[in-house]
Design brief:
Helix content is about 45%, strand content about 10%. By secondary structure, the protein is α/β, with parallel strands linked by helices. Residues about 245-258 have low confidence and may be disordered.
């Protein structure tokens, strides 16, 4: 974090850069950081933190670590910063993964962390599928708020996380993996481009809307979407009034082509 701040300072000439440490799997820590930010305005919130553990780990709050880090913590942070995002007409970017294409939304399996033995790759993909559905639900509920919600797939990039969490995958594909800069390109574009403003609820790949369920049998039903929302509100300990009950009244935002 300090290295990133120093690099940004060198490139921009700005000294008004603050580094805030946050363990997004710790919901108490999420509330601490949100308290410090909530009174201002938030232009962009990128949910990029993620973990892929090789064994089941339970947080002090009782949640499976992948679920807490990749999904519940980001959902709580968005909810607590909603007024600050609305004041700025801000943007929220959810960084998903191509792994989500292999999974259908399964709320029970997601919150149980899967059957034994624990499979970190499956649980990771489940959280990333749920993140895309959550992006759609937030866009529906906050339609007209001025906040733009986006989800995206960065492609497979040669990062330390891929090398350590998926060593076999990395060994086979390292010759074709993207650079971290290429993986981050659409994130930056969604955060800053005028072309992306207001196009809420979409799933993006390489700056273009992409389908969310190209694999047969992976589209969820409306009831499962509702169950995901209820489970997240409960797990995050959010006041249900944080978000509107009806929003866009069940309108679903899906892209048929890529």
């Amino acid at each position: 974090g300090r290295e990133a701040r120093a690099e940004l300072s060198r490139e921009t000439g700005s000294r008004e850069l603050e580094l805030v440490r946050l363990d997004v799997s710790d919901l108490g820590d999420v509330r601490r950081v949100a308290t410090g930010l909530a009174s201002g305005s938030v232009d962009v919130l990128v949910h990029n933190a993620g973990v892929l553990p090789d064994r089941r780990v339970t947080t002090p709050g009782g949640l499976e670590l992948t679920l807490a880090t990749n999904l519940v913590g980001p959902f709580l942070l968005t909810g607590l910063l909603r007024p600050a995002l609305e004041r700025a007409g801000g943007r929220v970017v959810h960084v998903s993964s191509g792994g989500m294409y292999t999974q259908k939304l399964d709320v029970d399996g997601l919150f149980r962390g899967g059957a034994d033995p624990f499979d970190g790759v499956v649980q990771y993909a489940r959280t990333k599928r749920a993140l895309v559905v959550l992006n759609e639900l937030l866009a529906e509920r906050l339609s007209g708020s001025g906040v733009t919600f986006s989800a995206m797939h960065p492609g497979w990039a040669d990062t330390p996380a891929v090398r350590t969490s998926l060593p076999r995958f990395h060994a086979v594909t390292k010759g074709i993996l993207r650079s971290p800069e290429e993986g981050a390109d659409t994130v930056v574009w969604l955060a800053a481009s005028a072309a992306a403003a207001g196009r809420s609820g979409l799933f993006w790949f390489d700056r273009a809307p992409a389908p969310t369920t190209p694999v047969p049998g992976t589209r969820e039903c409306p009831e499962e979407r509702g169950r995901l929302w209820s489970a997240l509100v409960e797990a995050a300990g959010l006041d249900p009034a944080t978000f509107p009950r009806e929003g866009a009244r069940g309108r679903r935002r899906r892209t048929r082509g890529s």
